[in-house]
Design brief:
The protein is mainly α and 126 residues long. Helix content is 56%, strand content 11%. It has 5 helices and 3 strands; from the N terminus they run ααβααββα. Strand 2 and strand 3 form a beta hairpin. About 4% of the residues have low confidence.
């Protein structure tokens, strides 16, 4: 029985749900990298990076190959770049919405810091 599309998407997003994996994919979006280059740009122990790369390989997002004695990683699915760019746009929109909310929640003259008018919180009026 095939996996429903929503489950397949959930599996993909679970695979992406680690900052190190996102960083690896961002770096590989620019160009392929040898493992030592990834280690220089990502603050992880070699064993941890290896585990994260294995997760990405199992999902089929990256591939490894030996080039002149080095293990080099590259992105398999070019649209991964688009997915990362879309995530950036979504985050930008969310941040804008958050900034608007924070602005709306700023204390205003005549209101206490909690946003209630004077006397509203204790039942008295001023």
């Amino acid at each position: 029985m095939p996996v429903p599309l929503y489950e397949a998407k959930a599996n993909l997003f679970r695979t992406l749900a680690h900052p190190a994996r996102i960083r690896v994919l961002e770096l590989l979006s620019d160009r392929e990298h040898a493992v030592h280059e990834l280690l220089a740009k990502i603050a992880l122990e070699p064993s941890s990076l290896s585990q994260q790369l294995a997760v990405l390989r199992r999902m089929g997002l990256v591939r490894q190959q030996r080039v002149r004695g080095e293990v080099v990683y590259s992105i398999v699915v070019p649209q991964t770049r688009d997915l990362l760019a879309a995530a950036r746009l979504v985050l930008r929109e969310l941040a804008a919405d958050q900034a608007e909310l924070e602005q709306a929640l700023q204390p205003r003259p005549g209101l206490d810091p909690a946003g209630a008018t004077r006397g509203e919180s204790d039942g008295t009026s001023s």
